[in-house]
Amino acid sequence: MSIQNLRTLLAIAERGSFAAAAREVHLTESAVSMQVKALEEELGLVLFDRSKRPPVLTEAGRALLPEARELVRGYERLSRRTDDMQPVEGHLRLGAVPSVLTGLLPGALAALQRKHPGLHVEIAMALSAELVGRVARKRLDAAIVSELSKVPAGCVWSPFAREPLVLIAPPDAPDRPAGELIARYPFIRYTRQAWVGRLIHATMKRRRLKVAEAMTLDTLEAVTAMVSQGLGVSIVPDRGQSVGFAFPVRTIALPGRTVHRVVGLLRPESHAKASLTDALLSELIAIAGSGKGRRISSK
Fold first, then answer.
1. What φ, ψ does residue 172 adopt, rounded to 5°?
2. Contacts of 92 (CB under 8 A, 6+ apart)
3. Which domains does the chain carry?
4. Partner residues linked to 96 by β-bridges
5. Whether 251 contacts 60, CB under 8 Å
6. Rg of the chain on CA atoms, in Å
7. Strands 234-237 and 213-217, how do they pair?
8. Cα–Cα distance between 189 and 197 in angstroms, integer?
9. Is the pLDDT of residue 243 over 80?
10. For the chain, how long is the longest CA-to-CA vector?
């Protein structure tokens, strides 16, 4: 049973709706709904009456709350105790999307190595779709991926960072709204082969943003470098201060409701290297919450 799903259930009970809980745990409302459905299927219970708006807890759902709270508290106590008592050693095969390799991951790995010198991490870089398949086939012990809409059977995905989509423009661009800058400059697109590239495309399509496309690139770093040199504008996730190099760009909020890229750690639900992946996740959460990235939740 996923502790994260139980945490989401408690957030809904405390906040009164799926939408409010989504804001609390920093996930999309659809992701919250998926977690609840997974919990209901696992328990064989209907936890919410969806004929009402917003959905309300059923009698079975209300009865589950005290046990869920105790399970979450017990898990947190055990995690703290285990972290204090157990050395973390071994070899971890980790996959990561390119933007994480130049963002949150280096700082997290450095902190991990200081605390656990007996841990060796082997890293493979690829796009999210490929990494998810490799974790599902047990060719990787874990992977840092983004925009995971469906968790493979037997795996757990723990989001730890939530990054808003923003427009980036050359540093000398005029201080104008995003729509005006998109109309004025060529557009540099991040590839739609990446899941976040599809999220960007869908956001542009919904908002009817018409662009004069100049080029398509397959790393966020390349996109940012081109924008920094005045070659156009782009829409990318705002990774805060996590990027380990500086291409100066002007950042402008997009019109309408903010859309986020969610980044998380995917790993097998039951795994011999769970202590290694848990230690890595703790460091990623710490980095994302330190101001060097955009934290969303604990686990």
1. -95, 10
2. 119, 120, 121, 122, 141, 142, 273, 276, 277, 280
3. 3-83 (1.10.10.10), 88-161+261-288 (3.40.190.10), 163-260 (3.40.190.10)
4. 125, 144
5. no
6. 20
7. unpaired
8. 8
9. no
10. 60
Please provide the DSSP assignment of the chain as one string. Answer: --HHHHHHHHHHHHHSSHHHHHHHHT--HHHHHHHHHHHHHHHT---EETTSSS-EE-HHHHHHHHHHHHHHHHHHHHHHHHHHH----EEEEEEE-HHHHTTTHHHHHHHHHHH-TTEEEEEEE--HHHHHHHHHTTSSSEEEEE---SPPTTEEEEEEEEEEEEEEE-TTS-S--HHHHHHHS-EEEEPTTSHHHHHHHHHHHHTT----EEEEES-HHHHHHHHHTTS-BEEEE--TT--SS----EEEEPSSS--EEEEEEEEESS-TTHHHHHHHHHHHHHHHTTTSS-B----
Beta bridge partners of 93: 122
Q: Give the separation between CA 115 and CA 285, rounded to whole angstroms.
A: 15
- 7 has pLDDT over 60: yes
Using pLDDT thresholds of 50, 70 and 90, give the confidence band for residue 31.
confident
Dihedrals phi, psi of 93, to nearest 5 degrees: -90, 105
**pTM beyond 0.70, yes or no:** no
Rounded Cα distance, 16 and 246, in Å: 42
Listed residue (250, 253, 264) closest to 295, CA to CA: 264
- Please report, as a single letter, which amino acid is at residue 260: H
CA torsion angle 259 265 269 270 (round to 10): -170
Separation between Cα atoms, residue 269 and residue 156, nearest integer Å: 5
Here the tokens at position 53 are: 């708006």
Tell me the pLDDT tens digit for each residue of 131-188. 999 999 989 999 999 888 788 888 888 888 888 999 999 999 999 999 999 999 999 9
CA 264 – CA 258 distance, rounded (Å): 19
What is the token pair recorded at 231?
């070659």
